[in-house]
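sry for the spam today, last one i promise. struct tokens for design, 248 residues
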């Protein structure tokens, strides 16, 4: 097909369908639309509320690009790097001066990003307390002092399986989040006390705690505080895919 024939076919299609409009006045609506979208995105990134789902998606995209230098740095040094929204966790064996220098260089790449830094042998990250004990990380559950523990009262108008699931989920969370058997046992005791305060019968609590340990063949963790079996339970639940992950 020669160029002239091709042009005629295009004009014929435009006339028949009225699907396209030829721009002859030098105005580019797509460019104007793109400018409007970029302006909106810039405003959302700088001033949008972090509670907005759309803003959180944009922030994650933005942070993914920004954090690449830090990720590469951690990979080179065989260290841990993790981020949840705008909370970052890193391990390092560098001196305080060296790691602060690395962070400062990363911050300079984008003036829109500001960070506050905490460097310590022990710190709170999300709902964890993480401690460095002779080069080994010890993880336990962190309870924010500002938030009071709440659990669904036993006398509430809910089906039985809801109350059963509350106990199971609390124990799974404790087993996943506590790398030390004593911390896991304290979390179990704390859960039991909260359940008692909210009207759960002691026999009901004991039955379903026992059922949890029997399910994972780890009864000796409950009765003997067996560290080795607790570590196996911790690793199994920690690395087991969630229902959401199994769907993807």
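last one done:
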């Amino acid at each position: 097909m020669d160029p002239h024939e091709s042009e005629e076919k295009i004009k014929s299609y435009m006339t028949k369908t009225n699907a396209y409009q030829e721009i002859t006045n030098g105005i580019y609506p797509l460019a104007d639309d793109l400018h409007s979208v970029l302006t909106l995105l810039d405003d959302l990134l700088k001033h949008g509320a972090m509670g907005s789902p759309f803003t959180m998606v944009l922030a994650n995209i933005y942070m993914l690009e920004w954090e690449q230098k830090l990720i590469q740095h951690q990979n080179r040094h065989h260290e841990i790097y993790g981020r949840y929204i705008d909370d970052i966790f890193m391990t390092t064996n560098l001196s305080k001066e060296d790691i602060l220098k690395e962070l400062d260089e990363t911050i300079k790449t984008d003036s829109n990003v500001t960070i506050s830094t905490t460097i310590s042998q022990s710190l709170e990250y999300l709902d964890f307390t993480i401690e460095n004990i002779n080069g080994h990380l010890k993880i336990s559950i962190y309870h924010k002092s500002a938030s009071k523990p709440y659990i669904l009262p036993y006398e509430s108008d809910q089906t039985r399986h809801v109350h059963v699931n509350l106990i199971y989920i609390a124990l799974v969370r404790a087993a996943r989040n506590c790398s030390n058997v004593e911390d896991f046992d304290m979390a179990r005791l704390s859960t039991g006390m909260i359940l008692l305060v909210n009207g759960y019968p002691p026999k009901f609590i004991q039955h379903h705690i026992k059922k949890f340990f029997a399910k994972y063949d780890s009864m000796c963790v409950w009765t003997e505080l067996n560290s080795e079996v607790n570590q196996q339970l911790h690793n199994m639940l920690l690395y087991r895919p969630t229902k959401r992950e199994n769907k993807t």
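The radius of gyration is 28 Å. ok im logging off now
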